[in-house]
Specification:
Layout: E1 4-9, H1 13-26, E2 30-36, H2 37-45, E3 52-58, H3 60-69, E4 79-85, E5 91-96, H4 98-101, H5 108-126
Antiparallel strand pairs: 1-5, 2-3, 3-4, 4-5
């Protein structure tokens, strides 16, 4: 089982990021964190890196349900979605698969929440 699902897009990087954010919003996710990996690597290491953003997406009602079921689930929140520009060209969007990442948690209720989040994130990625 893969820990993510991905889709390649034929869009400029910034346009892809905007499209991902809008698609997440339509599925009830907000962006809690937005990490510009390229800028961070440049400022911390002085190194060049391709355009790469990590968006920490959270669906508040589902996150609240998960937190009520498992107090340590915050270690897996928010759900990360990345947008990266490949050196060979093109942009790829990848989202964490919450079902795969929560396999070690023995909690049937939490598995149900993970499946709901998975379905939403798959709709986001597939709909791009």
């Amino acid at each position: 089982m893969s820990y993510h699902f991905s889709k390649k897009l034929d869009l400029p990087f910034d346009q892809a990021v905007a499209r991902v954010m809008e698609a997440l919003k339509r599925e009830g996710f907000g962006i809690l964190t937005d990490i510009d990996v390229k800028a961070t690597i440049k400022s911390k290491l002085g190194e060049e890196f391709r355009a790469y953003r990590i968006l920490g997406a959270c669906n508040p009602p589902l996150a609240f349900r998960a937190l009520q079921l498992e107090d340590k689930i915050g270690t897996m929140l928010p759900c990360n979605v990345i947008v990266q520009e490949h050196q060979s060209g093109g942009v790829e969007v990848s989202a964490v698969d919450p079902v795969a990442s929560m396999q070690a948690v023995d909690n049937p209720g939490l598995a149900d929440v993970a499946k709901e989040v998975q379905a939403k994130l798959k709709r986001v990625v597939e709909g791009l």
